[in-house]
Write a structure and sequence with these properties.
Blueprint lengths: L5 H7 L17 E3 L3 H8 L2 E4 L3 E7 L9 E6 L7 H22 L4 E7 L3 H4 L2 H22 L1
Parallel strand pairs: 1-4, 4-5
Antiparallel strand pairs: 2-3, 3-5
Helix pairs in contact: 1-3, 3-5
Amino acid sequence: MTPSAPPLAQADAGTAGGDPAVSACPQSRLSVLAKRADFLRAARARRQGAAGFLLQARRRAGDEAAQGIRVGYTCSKKIGNAVTRNRAKRRLRAAARQVLPALGRDGWDYVLVGRPGATVDRPFADLVADLQTALARVHAVRERGA
C-alpha cells in the first residue's frame, strides 16, 4: 500500500473476517444483496445521485422479509480494471458500514453504484457525507409522497 492512500486504509479498518460486505459489529442490521432480481428491483425504484456514486433505494414489499437493511454494491467496467473496481467497492462498503446502521431504515434495500473516477478518487469523508445526504433525500421524497 502506498503512503498516498490513507482513505483506503481508513476505509478497510474495522473489517474482521467473515463477509467483508457487512460490519463485523454483531449489532449491525446490514445484510448483503446477492440475487440479481433484488438489484433489478432496486434499479426500478428511487435514485439519488451523488458526486461519488449513485444510490438506488426501495422499500421491500409486504411479502418479502422486511427485517433489517440490505445493501448491494456494483461497479461496471467503466470504472476501470479489476483492481480499480474492487477498490471502489471496498470504499463503498466502508461508507455503507459507517452510515447505514444509523440512517438506513429497516425493510429497505440500498444499492450503491460506483462512478468512473469519482468513487476511487473522492476523499473518503466526502463519500460518507454524500451517502448521508443521499439517504436524507431518498427518505424525504418518501415522506412527502405518503
